[in-house]
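On clarity, I found the account of how folds are encoded harder to follow than it need be. Since the whole study asks how a given chain folds, the encoding of that fold should be made plain. For illustration, here is how one protein appears when written out as sequence plus C-alpha cells:

:::
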Amino acid sequence: MSRVLIAGESWVTQSTHIKGVDSFTTSSYVVGVEPLRRALEGRGHQVTHLPAHLAPAQFPGDAAALAEYDVVVLSDIGANSLQLAPEVFERARRGADRLEALRGWVGEGGGLLMIGGYLSFTGFEAKAAFRNTVLHEVLPVELLPEDDRVELPAGARAEVADAAHPALGGVDGAWPHLLGYNRVRPRAGAEVLATLNADPLVAVGAYGSGRSAVFTSDCSPHWAPEPFCEEWDGYAEVFGGLVEWLAG
C-alpha cells in the first residue's frame, strides 16, 4: 500500500442566466478526482485528496509534511496555487518555497506524477507555468513556453512503446480514445512508454534518489471520456502501475 496525495482535480463553476431583462448567477463545485481515487483505492492505496481551492493554504510546505506520503500527484492545478500561500500573496510575508521543498523531497526518494489538464504542465494560455519553476527539472519531459494544449475532438488512441514496463501496470490491448493532451518534449535519459499523436503520453524518469512520471492527457473528462476513465479496466492498471512504480 502506498500513501498518495492528489492535489487539484476540483473547480468552481459560475454561470450567468439571462432571462429577458433579468439575470441571476449560480455557482457549483465540481470534483473530477473520483475515477482516479476509485482506481487507486481499489488497488489498496491510501488516497488523500487536496482540492484546488484548499491547496494554496494546505499544500505540504516542507520535507516533514511531504514525508506523510509516498507519491504526490499534481493534476490540473497550476504552479501559482502551490507557490502562493495566503501569507505570501495576500499579506506580502515570506513563506515556504513549496515547489523547492517538493523538488528536494523527490530528490531524496519521493515519487511525483503530473497528470495533464488545462492547468497542468504549461497549460491554457501558459497559466499553469510549471516551466518557470524549479519543479520543471524534476519532470521526465521538457515543457513548452507557450500554451501546450492539443485538442483532439475526433479522438486518438495511445501507441504503447514499452508494454512490459512496470509503470504501465501490465495493461494489454488497445486503449480507448482520448480527446486531448498537453504537448511536451522528451527529456534526455527519460523513458517514453506511450505516445499520443506522436507526442509523449506516458514518460518516466529518475530524479536523484526519487522518481517522476507524467501522463499528459487527463484522468477525467473532458480529455478522458467515460469509455477511458469509467469503462476501461486498463485505467486502473495504468494509474495503479504509475503510482506503484513511483513508490518503488
